[in-house]
Amino acid sequence: xxxxxxxxxxxxxxxxxxxxxxxxxxxxxxxxxxxxxxxxxxxxxxxxxxxxxxxxxxxxxxxxxxxxxxxxxxxxxxxxxxxxxxxxxxxxxxxxxxxx
Length: 100
Description:
Helix content is 34%, strand content 30%. By secondary structure, the protein is an alpha+beta fold. It is globular, with a radius of gyration of 13 Å. The N and C termini lie far apart (36 Å). 14% of the residues are buried. The model has no long low-confidence stretch (mean pLDDT 93).
């Protein structure tokens, strides 16, 4: 593991803790579409999380994969994940809420 991967793991854990404690978290992502698999790739200098998506960014296909991946990763339903900004952009601000 390199320093960026260690930092990425800590940041994701912090977002999960915030979700558990406050019921909501908001995360900034840079999406890399048409990847070999969907996974967290690393961090940008401003701590934006790079998220690789194994789908094309066309007609909401990549966004659907993002919803599925984040719902599994954070243990919430897809309906609890909302793209606040960047619906059709590589940079996305995404809200994740705990299940009701």
